[in-house]
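User: What would this chain look like folded?
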Amino acid sequence: MNNKVYNNRAWLLVLPMLVLVAFSAIIPLMTVVNYSVQDVLGPNASFFTGTEWFRTMLNDSALQAAFGRQILFSLIILTIQIPLGIGIALLMPKKGWQASAVLILITLPLLIPWNVVGSIWQIFTRGDIGLMGWGLRELGINYNITRNAGDAWATIILMDVWHWTPLVAMLCYSGLRSIPEAYYQAARIDRASKWAVFRYIQLPKLTNVLVIAVLLRFMHSFMIYAEPFVLTGGGPGSSTTFLSQSLATMAIGQQDLGPSAAFSIIYFLVILLVSWVFYTTIMHLQKDKNSQGGA
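Assistant: Here's the prediction, encoded as structure tokens.
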């Protein structure tokens, strides 16, 4: 006989969390979905448009160009920051005061607000008062981020690498520190080279950390807004106008609520889809590798 007493009042303890999730995620998302299928003409004037805004956004040539720039930017960022972060983590001291000092120094860029980062690099790259701009001018290099799209792109990439590579390095460093010393002792007994230790011990053990690092960096780089907006304002022309800036212009500058809501949902689904595909692929590859190793 089951004498267990059930008390549903325990659900009250979960209620604050449910309310918080509803206010922070579900209600705003439902609001955006509601606007995405309407043409809002005023406070009490709107009519149902169905999927018209979605088709309009998907066929917009300016947004397609911004999407291409966003994909290119994210690929470049990941290609640079992941190997560079691993390399920095491998070179960092493992113990002692040197390890603490390096950790503090490497964390500093992460503590700076995004719009301040853009301001710092905007001043840093100026030809009259900025150290980088002045130095390149003295070397005879015609560098100008307001006129040359290549210079603007190179500066934004350099700025992002400076700002966010420390995050990858710290994640990799924590992953390296979690590897048991017995693995390294076995490698020393076998006289394994540094490359062999990295290839067969450190890199496999970093797989889960790298998945997190790539997902975090992809999601953030795909949503980047404040840094390039402060640095270049999206120019010259529209060469550094990314999706988030296009969305802000549409929603705030032009007050096009319906199209911007549809654009927001498409934007969200693209990030969700790419992250899911990447995570699923990595997990399947890891599972196949583990099954082959256990066979």
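The chain has a mean pLDDT of 88. If you want, I can go into more detail on any region.
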